Amino acid sequence: MSLKPDDLHPLLAYFEECHEGNLLSFAQWLDKAVYMFHYLPIDAFSELERQNTCHVLMELKEAVLKINGA
Fold first, then answer.
1. Which of 16, 41, 52, 63 has the CA that lies 20 to 30 A from 7?
2. This protein's superkingdom (predicted)?
3. CA 29, CA 7: separation in Å to the nearest integer?
4. pTM, to two decimals
5. Overall number of domains in the chain
6. Can you give the residue range of the structural domain that contains 35?
């Protein structure tokens, strides 16, 4: 499947509605989500699941910061 710019409309609407267009705010929430993983019970996720999830969140954060030009 090939993405088209219109396919990203729901994501852009989310940024506008929930973060008032402030992508840095969204990036900060992603940081907080990664930080909170340290407080979950050790058996809530496998180590690989924890690493993979944190990796995806950090990649998303980097992409958002690139969009923002930060």
1. 52
2. Bacteria
3. 23
4. 0.77
5. 1
6. 22-68
